Amino acid sequence: MQKSPVCIIGCGNPFMGNDGAGIAVMQRFEGRFPEVDAIDGGTGGFGLIPLMEGYEKVVIVDAMVGIGSRPGEVLTFEVPPSWDLPAYTLHDIGIGEVVTIAREFGYAGEIVTIGIEVGEIQEFSRDIDPGVEEGIRTAEQRILTILQKWSGELKGVNADERHHTPPTTTE
């Protein structure tokens, strides 16, 4: 089975409240565009590297702490987040380190990271704070903008939703 040229990887733990923000964004793209794979990256770390392998363009979206001024703020990193920022991820190795390694070893072409400031992480909760919910919507729009930009760079990728019909299933 041939991979699509683009993937969106969502990271986080949906059973830890706001930490599930990246997964929530990724789920908004499942089956939405046939030329874009939506992948659950779990809680991130080194396991993200093989998930990126072979893609021309990758978006990683994750809940982050200490990158923004308020919960729900969305930041886009064309270059990996600096390793000397405060603890911006809750995983064993930060997204910045993973992106740097993936680029260094040629696992993927262009990689963009979207971080959603989540403020507080609740344990054993599926509740996401209203500000973070707004950040999820903002991150979705930001990714749509990125996909639209990339559609001019990649043959066959079209993120124009005006002509998009959701897939139907028959059983």
Can you tell me about this structure?
- Residues 85-91 and 162-171 have low confidence and may be disordered.
- The protein has a single domain (7-121, 133-154), classed as Rossmann fold (3-Layer(aba) Sandwich), CATH 3.40.50.
- Strands 2-1-3-5-4 form a 5-stranded mixed β-sheet, sandwiched between helices.
- It has 4 helices and 5 strands, in the order βαβαββαβα.
- With 171 residues, the chain is an alpha/beta fold.
- Helix 1 packs across helix 4 (130-151).
- Strand 1 (6-10), helix 1 (21-27) and strand 2 (36-40) form a beta-alpha-beta unit.
- It has helices at 21-27, 48-52, 95-104, 130-151; strands spanning 6-10, 36-40, 57-64, 74-77, 110-117.
- The two termini are 22 Å apart.
Helical segment count: 4
- Biggest sheet strand order reads 2-1-3-5-4
Helical percent range? 25-40%
Mean pLDDT: 84
What string, H for helix and E for strand, traces the elements in order? EHEHEEHEH
Please give the number of β-strands.
5
Q: End-to-end distance, in Å?
A: 22 Å
Largest sheet: 5 strands, mixed
List keywords for this structure.
single chain; Rossmann fold; globular; disordered C terminus; 171 residues; alpha/beta; 18% strand; 5 strands
